[in-house]
């Protein structure tokens, strides 16, 4: 989600059979009928497999704060690293009750990326944002 002044843009990738997607599209159009919401729908095809990319898992835990997912997405996008999957959750810390936030991502790193440098830059960004994070290969 990105802020555009007083507006927000949310990117949502959806897959399914044609009937379900058609129903979703009609429902979104109804929802935006009063002009308070605007939806832009773009249909895509399957992406070809990219054999030169390595899947990595990203796990982040931190105190809940604004801009966590945005910061992570910008970091990877700036390096041409595809985000294949994202899952987030909020919860209360067990002993203190502090509001916590967790992000799990799968990213596909091009073989041309120098992994040691990427790790160093990633950890530096996480330190600046006060995130506890791990970046590790997914073993298949």
How are the elements arranged and paired?
Layout: E1 2-4, E2 7-9, H1 18-31, E3 53-63, H2 68-77, E4 82-92, E5 99-110, H3 115-129, E6 132-137
Antiparallel strand pairs: 1-2, 3-5, 3-6, 4-5
Question: How would you describe this structure to a colleague?
Answer:
The chain has 140 residues and is α+β, with helices and mostly antiparallel strands. It is 28% helix and 33% strand. Strand 4 and strand 5 form a beta hairpin. The radius of gyration is 18 Å and the shape is globular.
CATH hierarchy: architecture of the largest domain: 2-Layer Sandwich
| Helix percentage range | 25-40%
From the spread of the alpha carbons, the general shape counts as: globular
Q: CATH superfamily name of the largest domain?
A: ACT domain
Mean pLDDT: 86
Defining key terms:
2 domains, 140 residues, two-stranded antiparallel sheet, Alpha-Beta Plaits, alpha+beta
In short:
With 140 residues, the protein is of the alpha+beta class. Helices cover 28% and strands 33% of the residues. It has two domains: 46 residues, no CATH class; 85 residues, 2-Layer Sandwich (Alpha-Beta Plaits), CATH 3.30.70.260.
């Amino acid at each position: 989600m990105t802020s555009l002044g007083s507006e927000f843009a949310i990117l949502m990738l959806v897959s399914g059979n044609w009937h379900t997607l058609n129903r979703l599209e009609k429902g979104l159009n109804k929802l935006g009928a009063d002009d308070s919401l605007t939806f832009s729908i773009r249909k895509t095809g399957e992406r070809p497999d990219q054999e030169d990319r390595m899947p990595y898992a990203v796990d982040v835990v931190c105190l809940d704060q604004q801009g966590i997912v945005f910061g992570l997405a910008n970091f990877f996008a700036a390096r041409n690293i595809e985000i294949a999957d994202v899952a987030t959750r909020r919860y209360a810390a067990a002993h203190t009750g502090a509001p916590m936030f967790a992000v799990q991502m799968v990213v596909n790193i091009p073989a041309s990326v120098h992994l040691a440098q990427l790790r160093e830059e990633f950890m530096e960004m996480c330190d600046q944002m006060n995130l506890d994070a791990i970046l590790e290969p997914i073993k298949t």
